[in-house]
Amino acid sequence: MKNNNREKMNNILHIALEQIGMISILLNPIIPISTSKVLNALNVKDGSKNLSFFRDKDILPKKVEIKNLDILFNKIN
User: What are the domain boundaries of the chain?
Assistant: First the structure.
């Protein structure tokens, strides 16, 4: 699929990243440290870290540059 339809692949990846960002915003009151790491890795602006996406607003720009993501949860022994 990658070689056949690059635009479709990019669209699917963008939608997946949008969903990850939205889920992170919803989970922020429960696990704030981990979701903040995800939102920072996705370069979500502070003004978009709220429930505005319920009003059909995108939280990510059309071109997304993902930063390096640290470990979200430490292993419990």
Answer: 6-55
Mean pLDDT for 4-19 is 89
CA angle 8, 44, 37 (to 5 degrees): 105
- Separation CA 77–CA 32 (nearest Å): 22
| DSSP states along the chain | -TTT-HHHHHHHHHHHHHHHHHHHHHHTTTSHHHHHHHHHHTT--GGGSSGGGGGT--SS-SS--PPP---SSPPP-
- Per-residue pLDDT of 32-43, as tens digits, reads 999 999 999 998
Query: Closest Cα partner for 47 from 64, 60, 29, 66?
Result: 60
As a whole number of angstroms, the distance between CA 35 and CA 50 comes to 12
